[in-house]
Specification:
alpha/beta; Rossmann fold; Cytidine Deaminase, domain 2; 3 domains; six-stranded mixed sheet; 18 helices; 23 strands; about 35% helix
């Protein structure tokens, strides 16, 4: 076997001991000499396995409340020594054993940050000796096996069971690769903790596990998801989520976060854009009115609701072909209906994901920006026209503004009675987006008279408010900020329309 080397001496210094039993028994069976520290040593002894205290090797006890245990030339010399004449002679000169296997599991820094705000506690969970052992052993992978985490205990167990106390160069290099993954990930989270204010402009991304997807946007593209779906969803049914599914699910959850505390709200999305949204007294009514906005685009879409899906609604939904249905819960009867279609994906949303920043790769680098988590503050909205919106119009204008925020620019949302009845997005002209939205509403027999309109950016000309007025739209909301805002305001005043200016633009490219 290429580069095969025996394991004669092992160092064990771990935080998590679960899963270690089989390994120490196999090491003892193969007559491997074990060196260990503190709690790890006590644990090994409690299992009836012989092990030597590191203190006896170094001549120093654990000091400074355990901050210094393994940081000693007799430890790092044994790990870093090349199995070559010059280095081996030095090991003999200083009575240092060559350490062939290092097993480490670091202090749980990430978990500690999640569980407490106490800085002293967090700082003490920055592992120094462990991370140094990992880097040293990984650097010397030509001679040393490094097991950097409890996640790798099973891999070592398999090696010991199949090869005894031996390892190939390929084995050692694979473990070393995982070791540097662990160390870089660990350091990244420590950096994030110290850079909580974000003043140090540096982009560091580290996610341990990538989930292979069936393919990317198209079948010829390989794709992975890096993250933890389980942190936000329980997958109750259906095939594996695809790349496109995940992109749409992200868009759906981002949109529904705007309505999560409202009455029953349903949204239907296609290619990340909402084609139907409605808020009603009941989930069934919300579903029917969301679907009515564009039943054609709803085919093969992603559906999301902010309330539990009941049996009656499930029966209605089941008549439509859809890719994904997301809701905070499903009644037992509803679930029994929905799971009969084995490929339809059902996700139970238990936490709305939150993020402060978004990252996108462009050219040969990345662009990073704050997430668009800003919501309209009613106190800061400016009533720009002589006519003020009625209470119903104001409600619909806020609803429309929530919807248009999540449409691709240029975006227009037309709303009436808490129902999205027309939308236009992704056009190179805002006029085209508006015309598309009006066409959509008319094609499905939805009455535009008295409806309201939202734009995600300002109107550089009065053409959009003129087209909206001619279609029967009574009120408008937009960010404002154009040098020609007054032209649109004047048109609305002359036409008896109401206009609100938010001061907040929502470009979405």
């Amino acid at each position: 076997m290429s580069g095969t080397k025996p394991i004669q001496n092992a160092l064990i210094s771990v935080y998590h001991k679960d899963g270690l039993d089989a390994i120490i028994n196999l090491l003892e069976k193969n007559k491997v000499t074990i060196y260990s520290t503190g709690g790890s040593l006590d644990y090994i002894h409690s299992k009836g396995v012989k092990a030597n205290a590191v203190e006896k090797l170094t001549g120093y006890p654990s000091i400074l409340d355990g901050r210094v245990k393994t940081l000693h030339p007799k430890i790092f010399g044994g790990i870093l020594a090349k199995r070559e004449k010059n280095h081996l002679e030095q090991l003999m000169q200083y009575d240092i054993p060559a350490i062939d296997l290092v097993i480490v599991d670091l202090y749980p820094f990430e978990e500690t940050v999640r569980s407490t705000d106490d800085e002293a506690t967090i700082i003490e969970k920055i592992d120094i000796g462990g991370i140094s052992l990992i880097r040293a052993a990984a650097k010397n992978y030509n001679d040393v096996v490094i097991v950097p985490s409890r996640e790798d205990y099973d891999g070592l167990k398999f090696l010991l069971e199949t090869k005894g106390a031996n390892s190939s160069l390929e084995d050692r290099k694979q473990f070393a690769t995982r070791a540097f993954r662990v160390s870089s990930h660990y350091d990244k989270h420590i950096y994030d903790y110290f850079n909580r204010d974000g003043e140090d402009m540096s982009l560091k991304i580290s996610v341990h596990s990538g989930m292979p997807l069936r393919y990317g946007e198209n079948p010829h593209q390989e794709a992975y998801f890096f993250g933890e779906l389980e942190a936000n969803f329980y997958k109750l049914n259906g095939k594996e989520l695809s790349y496109n599914n995940l992109v749409d699910v992200d868009a759906a959850v981002s949109l529904m976060r705007e309505f999560k505390d409202d009455e029953a709200t349903f949204a239907i999305l296609k290619h990340t854009n909402a084609c139907g949204v409605a808020t009603r007294k009941t989930v069934l009514e919300a579903w029917k009115d969301a679907l009515a906005a564009d039943p054609v685009s709803a085919f093969g879409g992603v559906l999301i609701c902010n309330k539990a899906i009941d049996e009656t609604t499930a029966k209605e939904i089941d008549e439509l072909f859809y890719e994904v249905l997301i809701a905070p819960s499903f009644t037992k009867e509803a679930l029994a209906i929905l799971v009969t279609k084995k490929n339809r994906i059902l996700l139970q949303l238990h936490t709305y994901p939150t993020a402060d920043r978004m990252v996108k790769n462009i050219l040969d680098g990345f662009i990073v920006q704050d997430m668009d988590n800003v919501n309209v503050d009613m106190a800061s909205i400016k009533e720009a026209t002589t006519r003020k919106p009625t209470a119903d119009e104001l409600r619909d204008l806020i609803f429309a503004n929530k919807c248009v925020k999540h449409l691709k620019s240029n975006g227009i949302a037309i709303v009436k009675d808490n129902q999205l009845i027309g939308m236009g997005c992704g056009q190179t002209s805002r006029v085209d987006s508006l015309k598309h939205a009006i066409l959509k509403a008319n094609s499905f027999g939805l009455d535009l008279k008295g409806a309201v309109m939202a734009s995600e950016a300002f109107f550089p000309f009065p053409d959009c408010v003129e087209i909206a007025h001619q279609a029967g739209i009574a009120a408008v909301i937009h960010p404002g900020g154009s040098v020609k805002d007054k032209d649109s305001i004047d048109y609305c005043n002359n036409a008896g329309m109401a206009m609100l200016i938010t001061g907040i633009r929502h470009f979405k490219h």
